[in-house]
C-alpha cells in the first residue's frame, strides 16, 4: 500500500455482450492517473475530474476488483476508495457514468443494450433493500458463474441529447408502483403501471396468476426474487398491491440481453404528456426517442399507431366524438348571446351538419369589415371524413377576420348550399362579394344564394386549371409554359378593357387554343376588368387558406376538441389585434401604411400637369392618366378598385402637398378597426361538462342525462395513416435541378448529354 497506484479511467463507453457470452466495456474515452493510496475520496474525485474535464456533480464512479473484472462496485466515499486500493494491488479500473436521477442513498445499477448511445454502468451492491439502506462489503467469494446485480430496478441515465420526450420519463415510470398497499381503480390500470415500470426498469415479467380479482407477477429471470401480488377489494373493481418485493438479482448477461416488449395500448402511455403539449409530435421522432430512452426499436407504422392510441385516450374514442356536440352547442349560445349555431342530424340520430358564427364575429363584420368574403374547405384528419367549411373577411388593417365555420359530413352541393344559406342569415341585407374556387358544388350554390354577379372565382385555382390544360393538351417545355402563364397573369390583372383586349390578342397569336380556353372559362368572374363589382384587389382565397393553416393542428382533433381549440385561438387573435391598435401611428394601420408608402415611392418621379377642379394629368411615358382627387378616381382604376391612392394619385397629391392618408377610404382607418374589435367573447366553461359512460350515454355527475349524436353515416376513415401532404401545385415555384457532372440546370447526371472526358 506504500507505492502509488495506476488508475485507468473509462468514460463515455458502454457494457456490451461479446460473442462468447462475456460482458466487456467498449468505446468511449480513456485516460489515466497515478495516485497515492493515502489520498482522500474528495481529492481523488477532484483529480479525475480535472484530468477528464468533467463536473463531479454530474457523474458517478464505479470500480472493479482484480479477481472479477466484470463485477462493478460503487465508489462514493473514503471507505469504498480504500477497498478499491486494497483489492487491486498496483492497478485498478474506474468507470465514469452520468449520475442517475434517484435517491442519493440508493446505489442503483443498470446496463444498456449495445444499440444504446448513452454509456451506462452496472452495480452489484451486496445488500440493497426497498428503503434504500445499503451495507456494502468487498466481494470475497463469487458463488455463481456470473456476477449478480441486486437493485431496486435498473434505471436509465438521462440522455445528453435533448429529445421531444421528457428526459426523466424513465425514472418517472420507475415509480408507477411504489409499495404494498397502493390502490388502483381496476386491474387494467395496474397492468398499465406494471408495464411502464418494467419498461423503465429494463426487465421482463410474467403473470403466474392473471384475473381481475387476483394477480401474481414475477420476473422472467430465474431465481430473481422480484415479485408483486395484487388483490381486488371484495366485489369491487378496485385492486390493491398486497406483496411488493422490489429487488432484482440479475447477471450482467441477463441485463445485456434484455429486449423490451412492445404492447401498443400500454406503450402509448409513455407519450401521453408529449401529445398533450405537442400534437405535431411526429412518428419519426417517436421512433428516435424510444430507441434513445427505452432501447426499443419501432417501425414507422408502430410509432404512428402509438400516437393514435394516445390521441384516443386523450380525446376519447372516435365513436364518442359526436356525443357531446349538442351540449357544447347549447353552452356556446348560452355564454355568448347572439351567436348563431345550427346543428342538423338524420332521423336516426347521426350527425350531418354544423354551422357556427360567433356573436363577436358577426358584430365585427357588420360594423367594420369590407363586404368581401372568401369561402373554402379542408378535411379533418380524424377517424371520420368530415370537412371544415370556413368563411373569412378582412379587418381595417387587411388582416384575416374569421366570420363563420362549419363541419360537414361531406362537400357536396347540399352541404355547401346549407352552409351558404346560414351565412346569408349572418350577413343580412349587406351586399357582399363571395370568392371561392371553381368546384361544381360552389359554381351552383353561390350564384343561387348570393347572385351570379357577386361570385368571384379564385384566380389561383383558375391558374391551376389553365396549367393542367397546358400540360395535357397544348404546350410542351418549361419555357413555353412560363410564357403562357405570364400572358394569363397579364390578362387576369388587367384593370382596363383596352389592356385586356391587347393581352388577349398577344395570347391568341401565341396559341389560339389558349385564348379560346380563357374565353370559355367565365373571365367575367376572375378578370379584374370584367368583374362588375368592387373586389378590393382580392384575386384569390389564399388568405382564407392561411385560416386553414391557422387551424392546422386542430384539424387532427375530435370535433368537440376542435371547437374548443378554435374558440381559444379566436379569443387570442381578437385580443392581439385589439391590443395592436395602441401601436398604430396615425389614422391607418401598419399594413395599409406600407402599401401607401410603396405607391408614394413609385409616384415620386412622375411628371404632373395640374388642371381645374382637382383633376391632374400624370405622364407615364407617352401616356397621360387623369387623376381626380375630389372624386378619388384614376384612369388606371386602381384607386377605385382598392380604396387606396394608387401611384399616379400619390404623384398628384405629392405635387400639391396634401396628406395622402386623408384620401384612404374609411374602411381602412382607426375608427373602423375599433368598431370591428369592440365586441366581447366569453370562452365556455367545462367544469360541469358531462361525460360518456360505458353504455354510450351522456350524463353528468348528478346522473342527469343529455341528448347526444352518433357519428355521421358512411364517413368512417379506412385503417392506416391518412395522407397529409398536399397535392403539389401546378404553378408553384419548384426547386431548380442541377447536374452534378456538367453543373448545368434543367437535368441530372443520368440524363446529361455531355460525354465524360
Features:
23 helices, alpha+beta, extended
Write the layout of secondary structure elements.
Layout: E1 5-11, E2 14-17, E3 23-26, E4 29-35, H1 41-52, E5 59-65, E6 68-75, H2 78-86, E7 91-98, E8 148-151, H3 169-174, E9 183-184, H4 187-201, E10 205-210, E11 214-219, E12 227-232, E13 239-245, E14 248-251, H5 252-256, H6 264-267, H7 272-277, H8 283-294, H9 300-315, H10 325-335, E15 340-345, E16 351-357, H11 359-367, E17 372-379, E18 387-394, E19 400-408, H12 413-427, E20 433-436, H13 440-450, E21 455-457, H14 459-474, H15 478-492, H16 497-510, H17 512-520, H18 542-550, H19 559-579, H20 590-603, E22 608-610, E23 615-620, E24 623-628, E25 633-634, H21 638-642, H22 647-656, H23 670-676, E26 691-692, E27 698-699, E28 705-706
Parallel strand pairs: 1-7, 17-20, 20-21
Antiparallel strand pairs: 1-4, 2-3, 5-6, 5-7, 8-14, 9-13, 10-11, 11-12, 12-13, 15-16, 16-19, 17-18, 18-19, 22-23, 23-24, 24-25, 26-27, 27-28
Helix pairs in contact: 8-9, 12-13, 14-15, 15-16, 16-17, 20-22
Protein model, in words:
With 757 residues, the chain is of the alpha+beta class.
What's the gist of this structure?
With 757 residues, the protein is α+β, with helices and mostly antiparallel strands. The protein contains 23 helices and 28 strands. The strands form seven sheets. It has a seven-stranded mixed sheet, with helices on both faces. It has a five-stranded mixed sheet with strand order 4-1-7-5-6, with helices on one face. The protein has a five-stranded antiparallel sheet with strand order 9-13-12-11-10.
